[in-house]
Amino acid sequence: MTLLRGIAISCIEIHDNGLTEYGSIPPSCWPFQVTRFGLYRKVSLQYLTEFCSMKAYIITGPTSGIGYATALELAKHGVIILVGRNRDKLTRVQTTIEAAGQKAVPVVCDISDMKSVSNAARQIVSLGLPVAGLLNNAGIMPAKPSKTTQGWDSTFATNHLGPFVLTERLTSHLPEGANIVFVASAIEDPERRPAKIMGMKGGRYISAEASARGEWKAGGSKMPGIDAYATSKQCILASAMAFAREDRRLHYNAVEPGITRGTNLGGESTNAFLRFLFGHLMAIVPPFSKYSSTPKKSAKVITGILTDTSGKTGIYFDEKGRPMLGSELVRDTAFQDRVVAETRTLLSTMNYG
Ligand SMILES: NC(=O)c1ccc[n+]([C@@H]2O[C@H](COP(=O)([O-])OP(=O)(O)OC[C@H]3O[C@@H](n4cnc5c(N)ncnc54)[C@H](OP(=O)(O)O)[C@@H]3O)[C@@H](O)[C@H]2O)c1
């Protein structure tokens, strides 16, 4: 272990329950194997040097759907830091990436739990990898409301608070010009045609505090879970645009991946109709089919944005990678600043480390 500590990689892994004595780079990537007979060299130091000098990309929610397809696509460009809540699922994604001769590091994190997000950010920083991009992709759309460890609405915490905290905890550690991308949803816009036809009413923001309690502006959608989902996505999109104005050192963009079939979104829901609707029907029936996509297509678009070096910032991209407009409200800079300020105030009320 002393030998490993001497190499230019932090060898302390931070878990939810504190510090452990293992390397941040997981055992499968160590250049030495530890056995009961001692240390033996597994791979060359060249491997280690390569690992440390490759660009790295962080992806939340890489275990299914859009995030999984993006992890595989992005692995062609560098080391992937896989951030997810289930270690076994992360290991399976890591194994798939490594079987293709690429590199990945798992970091266990429940993005709806701010303590876990905070620990994950520390763990990512301790890896010491040159992070070129962060993709805030993990998201949920449950029909039934539930509460997180902090007692906050799960949809709001997963889709807005978690990515907000992860981003704010990492930004000062990212090199100039790094790309931060947020996976949003056009459902936030009450005027978006497919959403309007479905009777969705867009984001229903009252305040960050009210959202955390699971309260939305009256007169919303009759579809269960949609007001929570649309509001959380409106908040993270507004924050992305505010961050882009606040911080010119890094690049902040958002993407609407399109109506993407074959993912597990809405799968947490017990509502079979919603599952069918978002899983299949909307992707093939006009006018919804116009906005249809697949995880592989979304992965190409997102990878393009994450690896872009032209300095684009503050842009909301559609499923084809073209700039698009969000709702009138989300484009209002006063609203964007209000969401960020209220979110920071809400988060400051909770000591999560
Ligand atoms: N599919 C669409 O039509 C569509 C349209 C617009 C926007 N989006 C957005 O695209 C993103 C990806 O969605 P998807 O369609 O690919 O859905 P998905 O297949 O359900 O993938 C969601 C990912 O997020 C992870 N996740 C959920 N809750 C988490 C938590 N508390 N902590 C850590 N990870 C968590 C899931 O992990 P587990 O494997 O452990 O569950 C999974 O890896 C979401 O932000 C979604 O809102 C999707």
Written overview of the protein:
The protein has helices at 2-6, 45-53, 65-74, 87-99, 114-127, 154-170, 193-197, 208-212, 226-246, 272-284, 295-307, 328-331, 333-348; strands at 13-15, 18-20, 32-35, 38-41, 56-60, 79-84, 104-108, 131-136, 179-183, 251-255, 259-260, 292-293, 316-317. It is an alpha/beta fold and 353 residues long. The chain folds into two domains: 1-47, no CATH class; 141-348, Rossmann fold, CATH 3.40.50.720. A seven-stranded parallel sheet has the order 7-6-5-8-9-10-13, sandwiched between helices. Strands 1-2 form a two-stranded antiparallel sheet. The longest helix has 21 residues, at 226-246. It is globular, with a radius of gyration of 20 Å. The relative contact order is 0.13. NADP nicotinamide-adenine-dinucleotide phosphate is lined by residues 61, 63-67, 84-86, 89, 110-112, 137-140, 158, 183, 185, 257, 259-260, 263-265, 267, 278. NADP nicotinamide-adenine-dinucleotide phosphate binds next to helix 3 and strand 11.
